[in-house]
Amino acid sequence: MPEVTTDVDAAVRVLRAGGLVGLPTETVYGLAAHARNPEAVRRVFAVKGRPPTHPLIVHLPDASHVGRWAAEIPAALASLADALWPGPLTVVMRAAAEVPAEVTGGRDTVAVRVPAHPLALEVLRRLDDGLAAPSANRFGEVSPTTAAHVVADLGDDVDLVLDGGPCLVGVESTIIDLSGETPEVLRTGAVTVEELSSLLGTGVTLWSGEGEARAPGMLASHYAPHATVYMLDDAAASTEIATGLPGEGSIAVLAGTTTELDQVRSGLAGLAHRLVDLEPVGGPEGFAHDLYDRLRQADRLKCTAVVVVAPPPQGVGAAVRDRLARASSGN
Ligand code: TXA
Ligand code: MG
Q1: Torsion sign over Cα 78, 79, 82, 85
Q2: Which residues of the chain have pLDDT under 50?
Q3: Domain covering 228-327, topology
């Protein structure tokens, strides 16, 4: 098993030597490699089983580093960086020529962010450079939000895991693309579309999700557990899905409150012997914080389905609903 530690020096040594580190951020754990070391970045793809055309996010110690990665700094960046960095916002911009093609997936754009986690920032400052880091899960698993998730997914394929505790936000960063004519949100997260519009003083569009070309790696399967996800707008709707659920295996139930859990239990009364309650997660923030841990739990319990009463779309609730909608598409 990899070394699990809070020793920042050890993490920096591994990264300088071209190794891979499980890196805590405020969103999810990343699988970090020195972004200027193409060989190390190639290993990230190999370990994840990720297609080489799916670009990685470059994590930076602060906004002053952006000029080393961008061909030109977008005019709109300053207001976003001032207000939201360090924080769960990734910005896509035109890439500087020297950014390794391994990082960009061969595109002419690069995605960068400054993560808000003290250990990640300490590593980045000591390295004084960028770290390419996708979420530290194997391709096809949900993102890890604890050091234990990283170890469970990657084992010895990661050289060291820096243990920064459970991630505060729990879902991946918001991605805004500033490389085109108008700013476009490619992925929702804790930073909302409304917040971005108001900071930029202009309408921000939300990418429709059509096709994979715009932001490869956002397929439904990237956000889905093995169990089939059934997303409900409210607990009362559980009666409508009863007949469509898998015919065998345990069915996990995830909701914000015990009241909602009880409502689902009565809606699915005929299946009572197969239902497994997951611990309720509270409002939108709690939902984001615990979502991936609960989905992983459903998989550990070998449930064939997870019925989820989605949180309201306020704040990070919109991102939780986005991930659940992707995970449940078709159900
Ligand atoms: O919160 C996060 O963003 C986490 C933590 C570790 O920072 N990282 C993360 O990475 O979620 P990953 O690789 O799982 O997702 C990165 C997403 C992918 O969907 C990819 O398509 C998109 O960012 N992306 C990266 N570079 C891009 C680019 N140049 N243009 C468009 N999309 C890009
Ligand atoms: Mg990912």
Answers
A1: negative
A2: none
A3: Rossmann fold (3.40.50)
